[in-house]
Backbone:
């Protein structure tokens, strides 16, 4: 008997869809909601420019990062300092992890008992449902041997990967801070290993419709996120009031601004809504690094007059969780406008 590694997504989606039947398969002409999605090429920034002996080239590279953060809220980086070999090893380990039988993944306490799938119990309709599974791991647990069980080789690779992503996240965040004429300690004083996360994502093939969310529309509740994704595609973001599909680039990592940077920068940098769509033929993998402050860190504005009232990261997360519980979706920064 074949042991299924995927969670029972179809069963739970069907329960949310009742009394309506699930959407028809994506290869039928009756699925009228399927539309040709405009594909975008995110701003591509070569980070080797930051180390150039030519100061003009270094300044231009930093300016490109800040401009993309303001105009897009998303960009991609190459020559980012994380070796292709490390990325490949991390992907192999991730695939092995998710191939573990579902019953074991969901009960054995792997990676600080951080396994999640589908949507929280608050989901009341298909539009709140995410066709995916993930491990959402605090950085403090990444090197903890007791979290890995028989996945001993995963620990070594993920510890190296987390350190490399952390270094890159701080480099980018400090450039964004300095662009607004502030000292680097804004990030260094509030974000450390105890506050940041890695999330390992797996989006199984979806047999019923390409219009189901792999990850529901949202903004990220952090300073910034770095994403390592495969070539399957599915990531979409809101640009000029419409959804556009992000074209995968095998050589690049994707960076996006989070809510905290938008609030701190007084809307200079943009935290942009994004989502992941399912695929009927291919599964998809990605890994996200989240640069977060401590819960008691005060998120004020870098200049006056401020658009937002002051709040701590803990207060922000609590409000987000309350909104999701009440409405099924995140409200986010509009709750904190003055």
Residues:
């Amino acid at each position: 008997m074949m042991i299924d590694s995927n969670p029972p997504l179809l069963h739970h989606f069907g329960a949310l869809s009742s009394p309506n039947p699930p959407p028809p398969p994506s290869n039928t002409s009756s699925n009228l909601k399927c539309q040709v999605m405009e594909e975008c090429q995110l701003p591509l920034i070569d980070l080797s420019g930051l180390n150039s002996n030519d100061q003009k080239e270094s300044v231009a590279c930093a300016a490109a990062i800040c401009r993309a953060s303001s105009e897009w809220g998303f960009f991609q980086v190459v020559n980012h300092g994380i070796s292709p070999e490390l990325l490949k090893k991390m992907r192999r380990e991730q695939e092995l992890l998710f191939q573990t039988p579902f019953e074991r993944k969901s009960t054995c306490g792997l990676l600080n008992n951080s396994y999640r799938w589908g949507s929280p119990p608050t989901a009341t309709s298909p539009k709140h449902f995410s066709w995916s599974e993930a491990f959402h791991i605090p950085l403090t647990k990444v090197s903890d041997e007791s979290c890995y069980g028989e996945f001993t080789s995963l620990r070594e690779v993920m510890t190296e990967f987390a350190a490399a992503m952390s270094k890159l996240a701080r480099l980018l965040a400090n450039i964004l801070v300095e662009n607004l004429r502030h000292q680097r300690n804004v990030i260094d004083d509030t974000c450390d290993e105890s506050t940041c996360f890695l999330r390992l994502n797996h989006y199984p093939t979806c047999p019923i419709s390409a219009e189901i969310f792999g990850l529901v529309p949202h903004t990220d509740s952090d300073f910034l996120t770095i994403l390592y994704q495969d070539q399957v595609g599915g990531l979409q973001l809101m640009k000029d009031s419409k959804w556009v599909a992000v074209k995968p680039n095998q050589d690049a990592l994707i960076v996006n601004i989070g809510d905290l940077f938008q609030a701190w920068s007084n809307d200079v940098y943009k935290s942009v809504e994004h989502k992941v769509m399912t695929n009927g033929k291919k599964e998809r993998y990605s890994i996200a690094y989240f640069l977060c402050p401590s819960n008691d860190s005060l998120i004020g504005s870098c200049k006056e007059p401020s658009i937002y009232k002051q709040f701590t990261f803990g207060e922000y997360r609590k409000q987000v969780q309350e909104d999701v519980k009440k409405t099924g979706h995140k409200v986010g920064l509009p709750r904190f406008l003055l």
User: Anything to note?
Assistant: The first strand starts at residue 39 and ends at 40. The first helix runs from residue 9 to 17. DSSP finds ten helices and 15 strands in the chain. The two ends are 59 Å apart (CA to CA).
